[in-house]
Amino acid sequence: MFPEDKVKARMESQLPISEIIHDPLKGKKDYHKLERYIIDGMLISYKELSEKGKRISDALSNADYVHIEDKNGTDIKMRISGRRVNISDGYISEEDVARGQRGSNLPTGEVYYAPHEDSCEGKYILSANYESRK
pTM for this one? Predict the structure, then answer.
């Protein structure tokens, strides 16, 4: 599943957990889509996911800044130099444990940094929110 497909599937299926437990159709979302999103997101090659995460991490390892743009108008730049890389790949390595990371999300699949707090410049455009999706 590509990142865009993952986001689209999540938006189509996402419900607050309380609505899923108490009334899965209250938000007019298909419970089976949510179930497929979760299960399909876990039926992946974790080895391939880990390798891809490592490649992304390596590509950013010497970067001072990250610049993110998208078709909706997001244009944001932030400094990441010297920050720790986090690879969420469903595998908790000895290195993760040594850093205090003893958990993971499933489905998984992200590489993330915490930017320097005073370095973010630009704008982030949120294309949809939960209440506006119909």
Answer: 0.64
Q: How far apart are CA 80 and CA 66, in angstroms?
A: 7
* Residue 103 DSSP SS3: coil
> Which tokens in the block code for residue 114?
């915490």
Over the stretch 88-104, which tens digit does the pLDDT of each residue have?
998 888 988 998 888 88
Beta bridge partners of 111: 87
CA distance linking residue 129 with residue 45, whole number of Å = 31
Length of the chain: 134
**Domain ranges, ordered by start, for the chain:** 1-43, 62-125
pLDDT digits (tens, 9 = 90+) for 78-89: 999 999 888 999
By the 10 Å C-beta count (0-12 exposed, 13-18 middle, 19+ buried), 74 is classed as middle
- How many angstroms separate the Cα of 57 from the Cα of each of 12, 53, 69, 77, 78? 29, 6, 19, 18, 16
